[in-house]
Amino acid sequence: MNWRKIADKKRSIRILRTIHNSAGVRVAALSVLVVAFSATAMASRGDSLSAMSAAAASVRSQSQVSRLSVQNGSATASDNAVNTSIVGLWHIRFQVGDQTIQEAFQIWNAGGTEVHNPNVDPRSGNICLGVWKEAAPRIFKLTHLVWSYDVSGNFLGTINLSETPVLGDKGNTHSGSFTLDFYDPAGNFMFEVPGNAIGERISVN
């Protein structure tokens, strides 16, 4: 038996195992980085109204359920309200099913216009404008149009946000339905996502 050949063979096996283990560590580390990067990317694009299509696409299958929950969960016009005007500054959360897809500050102006400042990356657009009217006592209609861009400045199309908030809690909160209609850059309708908007009035006190 050639002991030198056996020793060389054992040394070769140890080297191969070391290489294999090192490669495994590199692959595992790379996998962790890829997963982390993907999660960060999804989190960063899920908040923008101008990029809501990313969040909305993941919950489009809940649309019928969320529409039913909106109808059952909205405030009713029979509540005893002290402040019957929606004019003012509001903190808004937009929900589809149980998932909040965005929060924002909204200003409802006395002249019938609205300013929307979502909690998003400003590079994708964080100021939007709308118009509103009172449809019935303490029930309001909002139409809100958005030019949609990504953070690289690429035009994605337009988004039409419609809200129907109903004042509750003596005029300090509102809740109601919303719909998001998405259009491509050529103006072609792509899809609609319904949901629920919940607001809390912000005051100086």
List the topology elements.
Elements: H1 3-45, H2 52-57, H3 63-73, E1 88-96, E2 99-108, E3 113-118, E4 128-136, E5 139-149, E6 155-168, E7 173-183, E8 189-202
Antiparallel strand pairs: 1-2, 1-8, 2-3, 3-4, 4-5, 5-6, 6-7, 7-8
What does it look like?
With 205 residues, this protein is an alpha+beta fold. The chain has one domain (49-202): Quinohemoprotein amine dehydrogenase alpha subunit, domain 2 (Lipocalin, Beta Barrel), CATH 2.40.128. Helices cover 29% and strands 41% of the residues. It has an eight-stranded antiparallel β-barrel. The protein is globular and about 45 Å long.
Q: Flag low-confidence runs.
A: 3-7, 15-48, 61-79
SSE arrangement, N to C: HHHEEEEEEEE
Question: CATH H level: which superfamily?
Answer: Quinohemoprotein amine dehydrogenase alpha subunit, domain 2
Give, in spatial order, the strands making up the sheet with the most strands.
1-2-3-4-5-6-7-8
Sheet with the most strands?
A: 8 strands, antiparallel, barrel
State the total count of DSSP E strands. Answer: 8
| CATH architecture label name | Beta Barrel
Helix content: 25-40%
Total separate domains: 1
CATH class placement: Mainly Beta
Mean pLDDT: 73
The helix count comes to: 3
Computed CA radius of gyration, to the nearest angstrom: 26 Å
Beta-strand content estimate: 35-45%
Structural class assignment: alpha+beta
Ends: how far apart? Answer: 93 Å
Shape: globular
The CATH topology comes to Lipocalin
